[in-house]
Amino acid sequence: MKTLVYLKDVVTLKLDAEKCTGCRMCTRVCPHEVFAIAEKKAVIVRKDYCMECGACAKNCPEGAITVKSGVGCAAGIINGILKGTEPSCDCSGSGGSCC
Amino acid sequence: MNSKYIIGSVPTVFGEIPRVDTKWNSSDIRNTMRVRWNVGRMRYTVDPGLYAVGNPDAESMVFVSANFKLSFDHLRKALHSLNAWILVLDTKGINVWCAAGKGTFGTTELISRIKICALLNIVNHRKLILPQLGAVGVSAHEVKSKTGFQVIYGPVRAEDIPAFVASGFKATPEMRRMNFPMWERIKLIPVEITYGKYYLILVPALFFILAGLGPFGYAVDDAWHNGGRSVILLFASYFAGCVLTPALLPWVPFRRFALKGLVLGWIVTSTFLAFDLLGPHILEKIAWYLMTGAISSFLAMNFTGASTYTSLSGVQKEMKTALPLQIAAAAAGLAAWIVARFL
């Protein structure tokens, strides 16, 4: 089955090639093969497949990756609007809806 | 919480560690089904801490998991035929992916759990195997610098662990990729169905009551006849949004979930139209298209949260236009439907 792809040109993922040391960590943690290694450095090859989970940024020892991460969840966003907070799925609530 | 999955214990320098069964017993299976239907899903937990699988010793591997029992169950099942340790983090009963997003399956909790469980004394090596999706909350280099433990990200799915171990802790691209096959989407449908909660009774009840309205006052016969038809239509659009959309996701045109839901909602509504079940008046037919479209579209949009490939930026973008339209369509549809009662 081919991988599903969401909306085009919306993703906030950025990679600073200057800082990258080519440790490959981003290629290991990304669930959608967004990164590849070319000439011993990471490159973003499938940007529209990024789901902004933030695993790459969190695990980049050089801090070369930035992404505005959060829940890609309509219910979470509505929850955030109602409470005036960032999108949150309120998982620890009492039996409410959850991601 | 019963703990029939504990079978004996394993002695260590730090006392007896409970040993878990790698097979699911009948209550594990029954509870899994209940949780899939959103029954007790937020209270389905195991105690955080260290567990043993088989007969592990100081050289055995350590697998880290969340304390949502479904996550834990999938891990212990995958570790059959291995001798290993399971370190369960306190994620407040939430699965690895969602807990990592919230930070409870995170660097701080992992570091403190390593200390609480005296992992440094129990194993001689300094390696931890984490589910890949835990990387959203855990910073491997930080764990290494604070505890000495090297974090190795394993496969996304626990079922790939035997192959991952056999290949010397190398996850293939296949194991790293998050797909969303039919069966995985279908497993999520029951929880989606429960999303409506008491609205599932409240809204149909409202339609039953309003259906009796007419130019000659209130008619109970109309309430039964039109009300029954209305309730079936409402449930059909609900079904289109939270059953058909997940099941048929890749085959429905459009990338936006709201549009996918709209397409399916209108296909279902058109089926009703073909059998002349949308009411006698054109205004009522339009009213139904507006309402069923709004319902199905909204519910389909909610499935973005359960899907495995939507981004925050994307969902925000789609909601910005979809949500106001859904609300407007539902309101206009309801108003038109009420007006049609008097025509």
Structure characterization notes:
- The complex is a heterodimer of chains A (99) and B (343).
- With 99 residues, chain A is α+β, with helices and mostly antiparallel strands.
- Chain A has one domain: Alpha-Beta Plaits, CATH 3.30.70.
- Chain A is 19% helix and 12% strand.
- Chain A contains three helices and four strands, in the order E-H-E-E-H-E-H.
- A two-stranded antiparallel sheet of chain A has the order 1-4. A two-stranded antiparallel sheet of chain A has the order 2-3.
- In chain A, a hairpin with a 2-residue loop joins strand 2 and strand 3.
- Chain A is elongated.
- In chain B, the strands form four sheets. Chain B has a three-stranded mixed sheet with strand order 3-5-4, sandwiched between helices.
- In chain B, 53% of the residues lie in helices and 12% in strands.
- Chain B has 343 residues and is mostly helical.
- The mean pLDDT of chain B is 94.
- Chain B folds into two domains: 171 residues, Rossmann fold; 160 residues, no CATH class.
- Chain B is elongated and about 85 Å long.
- In chain B, strand 4, helix 2 and strand 5 form a beta-alpha-beta unit.
- In chain B, helix 10 runs antiparallel to helix 11, helix 11 packs across helix 12 and helix 13 runs antiparallel to helix 14.
- Chains A and B meet through helix 1 and helix 3 of A and helix 3 and helix 14 of B.
Coarse morphology of chain B? elongated
Radius of gyration of chain B: 26 Å
Whole-number average pLDDT of chain A?
A: 87
At CATH's second level, what is the architecture of the largest domain in chain B? 3-Layer(aba) Sandwich
Largest protein interface? Answer: A-B, 51 and 57 residues
Through-space gap between termini of chain A: 24 Å
